[in-house]
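Handout, section B. The chain below has 403 residues.
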Amino acid sequence: MLKKAVKLLRGSVCVRAKSAYPERMLNLCSARGIEFWDVRWIDDTALSFCVTRGDLRALRRAAEGCGAEVSIERTAGTPFFFARLRRRHALFAGGILCAALLLVNSLFIWDFEVTGNETVPTETILHALREHGVHRGTFIYSFRSQDICNRVLPELKDLCWVAVNVRGCKAYVQVRERVRAPERVNESEPTNVIAAKPGLITKVRALDGEKRVLPGTSVQQGQLLIAGVVDTGGTEKPSVTTRFLAGKGEVWARTWYDLTVRVPLTYEKKVYTGKEKRSHTLIWGENRLKIGAKGSSICNVDCDKIKNQTQWTLFGLFALPVTWETETLLPYELEITPRSRADAEAQGKDMLETYLAALLGETGSVTQRRFSTAVEGDTLVVTLSAECEEQIGKEVPIAVSEG
């Protein structure tokens, strides 16, 4: 493979030598250090072989010495390729123009890649950059990254750091989102702990304040569980009969839920008509040019819209500022399709399980569950009866009047 590559770079010539004794040509080549290969006998007086482009002149002199006739059959390699281009002025000029366009193209931004954002949408970041002059088609030396970052950050309150690095035709936007400081909690503020929902108390853990319920007690929503107002009785400190504390703690209880959902036994299914409408758009930077589009791209019937974008590149190495977009419209009709009871029951159970998990949060757990189903008309009623254990204590501030 390496030898072939070297021969292509140096250039090779396939010649035909005709003489009464053609084998003398091979002997002369060996004696004069002329490299040859691919020897092929044509007849008793002629043979062909290949030599390098640099040895062609020495081969002709050797042929004159032995009275042989040498003719060129074919040539190959880089030197001959560029020699042919010199006679094709339009092609040569086109190559120079293409190289110049690639050089100019590399001085503009044609693509963006945003990384580091989780809550802030990419479109919001790109819109802020556009407002300050950084978009597709922007000259890469027309702005300073630090200046852009200083102007963009005040507008994006959820970001604390932005960096724009340009490599080739692509701008890499790296961001870091701001971590909000948690709200400060006043540990000395008088509070009570009340029941966020009804239940049967299983465990009370008071960190501060006075317990007002014991395990095994049934409580209702809003009932006082841990009091932040404590009566001292006036024996130890007669001047202070009431103390205000920051009632804190955890109160665990058994809770019960009865959740119901109705699942239709029929649903609308998409049935595609088999027809499709395609339109093509050539995107050059920020400009769009529709090609071969007839009429509006708005579908008069129900349809799915699929967009495929392909950015043009040169040999997969250089990104061009051209994107080919194909938009396909697939019309469909809605067909009423029956749903089996098993599928409806499975879907209802999943919905109820998800809703129950949201109600319990991360700390609650389900100890028992039972499902029941019943058909009412064209719907299936799925009911979940669950027994759970969760923390129902909720801190509420105590209004203290001064005076």
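Note. The helical segments are 2-10, 23-31, 56-66, 78-87, 89-105, 122-131, 145-152, 341-360. Compare this with the example in section A.
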